[in-house]
Specification:
CATH topology of one domain: 434 Repressor (Amino-terminal Domain)
Distance between the termini: 61 Å
Strand content: under 5%
CATH class of one domain: Mainly Alpha
Number of strands: 2
Low-confidence stretches: none
Radius of gyration: 25 Å
Number of helices: 13
Structural class: mainly alpha
Strand order of the largest sheet: 1-2
Length: 283
């Protein structure tokens, strides 16, 4: 069985523990369940298969049955809480506890850097802008951002980006990206921070409309009457458009300026067909 911190799914922990024990002895699901205090002989088998869930108390019982204690027990309990959190905000709260637990015990866990990276627009912008400013001091970099940030923030973020393996520093002190395009989603982290990040980027867009000359920005919009079928087709077009934009952006090795492209499609009315159908049902 792998170290507990390499798991992002508690069901896989249960399954791997059973398979490891089974390889070394005549260990059975019944024995496992009894050791964990479950009446059903196959309850934990169903947990491993995703057919049953562990409660908070069941998580503690199962962890102790697997010989987990201290940090490992707490980590397993949080994995269970994370899996069964009802919404993105709840998951985000649990994941923050997982990160705090890892920091307390000086342990590296999957997804922590992803979570921190996508939590702020400043991380994303500096990862793009710093390689284009070789030898620049933190204050110069800070002033180059729109809106400007502080030199202290630049220093802190650069240290994080290097530590997370998202930037590397050469012998001359210049920064390089480890990968041109970035696709990370360990632990489903992007879903946890997507709303906050989109709000931040939306606020930057409003700021650009208010404070930037129109020659420096390109902003337009459409208000459309759609069917469900046409909405789905447009969403597929947006996905393909994003793929092509990334391909164009990564063709050039150098960066002259950092831009943000927001793509937004959201309803400005209720679903009128469903509304009419509901009214007919009432009548």
């Amino acid at each position: 069985m792998k170290p507990i911190v390499e798991y992002t799914d508690y069901r896989k922990v249960v399954q791997d523990y059973y398979e490891d024990r089974k390889r070394l002895s005549s260990f059975t699901w019944r024995e496992f369940a009894e050791k964990a205090g479950f009446a059903s002989a196959i309850y934990l088998k169903y947990v491993g298969e995703g057919k049953k869930n562990l409660s908070a108390s069941g998580a503690t019982q199962t962890a102790r049955a697997m010989g987990l204690d201290g940090f490992e027990l707490a980590y397993f309990e949080l994995l269970v809480a994370y899996a069964h959190a009802k919404d993105a905000e709840s998951k985000k709260s649990v994941f923050a506890k997982i990160c705090a637990l890892a920091d307390e015990h000086r342990v590296k866990i999957a997804g922590k850097e992803d979570f921190e990276f996508f939590s702020s627009w400043k991380n994303i912008v500096l990862r793009e802008i710093v390689p284009a400013m070789p030898g620049a001091k933190p204050l110069e970099v800070a002033k180059a951002c729109k809106p400007a940030i502080t030199a202290a923030e630049v220093t802190e973020i650069l240290n994080f980006l290097v530590k997370a393996g998202l930037l590397k520093k050469d012998s001359e002190g210049a920064y390089r990206q480890t990968d041109r395009a970035l696709f990370m989603d360990t632990f489903g982290v992007k879903d946890l921070v997507a709303k906050d990040l989109q709000v931040q980027m939306g606020e930057l867009a409003v700021n650009a409309i208010k404070n930037m000359p129109k020659e420096e920005r390109s902003m337009s919009g459409l208000t459309l009457g759609l069917t469900e079928r046409s909405r789905e087709r447009i969403e597929r077009e947006i996905v393909e458009f994003r793929r092509r934009i990334v391909a164009i952006a990564t063709e050039d090795e150098e960066t002259e300026q950092v831009f943000r492209l927001n793509l937004q499609l959201f309803p400005l009315s209720e679903n009128l067909r469903r509304r009419n159908e509901n009214e007919k049902d009432v009548q």
